[in-house]
């Protein structure tokens, strides 16, 4: 098994600030919670928290399942942006794009299910969770957690039609250090584009190309008024543009979107 620790991860990261400080432990409750604690201790912008196991990690419907050692990337990056809190939710899309670009550079045919899942063969290979802390109305920190199924050889029965791994799709084992380096290099580049405009305008073409939902039938699970239509792409604010069956163009922000053909949704 390839070594995976603070030094090997650090040595694989070739960036200006993203992941220049790396913290690694064998097990933590969750890398997002750990990154928040590091924030309270004064950790700098770009700090990375990575772990082999997450004791508070949960699978679908709250089921607990533990990925074997050497099989996954579980990491969170701490950001200290100066832009307004209203822009922070778009960082989920920035990380989704960055992770997809990193996986694509390894060869697989990858796509992004809006807003925050990366998919291979219509199954989820990566999930992203973005959380923000505020102080006096300003952003104290943004923490983006990334979980990538890398060398997992099998999943629990209830997940086999919804989740996959790089190994299951390609038959190859991957160096997780190298993968982290690729994700952070892409993220640093995309984040700097984002900060310059506070929207996705400079990444729109790249994101649209990888968008799994584009041209697909979608069901928008709006709490007040669910509807169906065809996803046309996203706008510069990260909203999913859906043309309803009645011909109306609607911009969907947040909420849960089910997509026909992905995750066994038909």
Q: How would you portray this structure in words?
A:
- The protein is α+β, with helices and mostly antiparallel strands and 266 residues long.
- The chain has 6 helices and 12 strands.
- The strands form 2 sheets. It has a 7-stranded mixed sheet with strand order 1-2-3-7-6-5-4, with helices on both faces.
- Strand 1 (22-28), helix 2 (31-40) and strand 2 form a beta-alpha-beta unit.
- The protein is globular, with a radius of gyration of 18 Å.
Quick tags:
single chain; 266 residues; alpha+beta; seven-stranded mixed β-sheet; five-stranded antiparallel β-sheet; 6 helices; 30% strand
Structural class label = alpha+beta
Distance between the termini: 39 Å
**Helix and strand succession?**
HEHEEHEEEEHHHEEEEE
Taking all residues together, what is the mean pLDDT? Answer: 92
Strand order, main sheet: write it out. 1-2-3-7-6-5-4
What fraction of the residues are assigned to beta strands by DSSP? Answer: 25-35%
Shape: globular
Q: Let me know the number of strands.
A: 12
Radius of gyration: 18 Å
Total of helices? 6
Low-confidence blocks of residues: none
Biggest sheet descriptor: 7 strands, mixed
Query: Approximately how much helix is present in the residues?
Result: 10-25%
């Amino acid at each position: 098994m390839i070594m995976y620790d603070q030094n090997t991860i650090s040595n694989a990261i070739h960036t200006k600030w993203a992941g220049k400080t790396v913290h690694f432990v064998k097990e933590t409750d969750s890398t997002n919670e750990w990154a928040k604690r590091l924030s309270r201790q004064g950790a700098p912008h770009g700090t990375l928290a990575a772990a082999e196991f997450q004791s508070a990690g949960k699978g679908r419907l709250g089921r607990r399942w533990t990925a074997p050692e050497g099989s996954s990337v579980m990491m969170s990056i701490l950001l200290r942006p100066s832009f307004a809190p209203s822009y922070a939710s778009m960082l989920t899309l920035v990380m989704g794009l960055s992770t997809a670009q990193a996986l694509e550079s390894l060869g697989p045919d990858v796509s992004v299910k809006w807003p925050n899942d990366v998919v291979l063969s219509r199954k989820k290979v990566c999930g992203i969770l973005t959380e923000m802390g505020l102080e006096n109305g300003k952003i104290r920190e943004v923490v983006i957690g990334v979980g990538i199924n890398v060398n997992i050889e099998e999943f629990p029965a209830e997940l086999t039609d919804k989740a996959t791994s790089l190994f299951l799709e390609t038959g190859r084992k991957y160096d997780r250090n190298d993968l982290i380096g690729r994700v952070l290099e892409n993220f640093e580049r995309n984040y700097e584009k984002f900060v310059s405009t506070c929207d996705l305008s400079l990444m729109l073409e790249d994101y649209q190309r990888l968008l799994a939902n584009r041209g697909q039938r979608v069901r928008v699970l709006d709490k007040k008024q669910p509807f169906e239509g065809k996803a046309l792409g996203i706008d510069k604010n990260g909203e999913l543009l859906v043309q309803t069956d009645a011909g109306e163009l609607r911009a969907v922000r947040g909420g849960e979107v089910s997509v026909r053909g992905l995750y066994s949704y038909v």
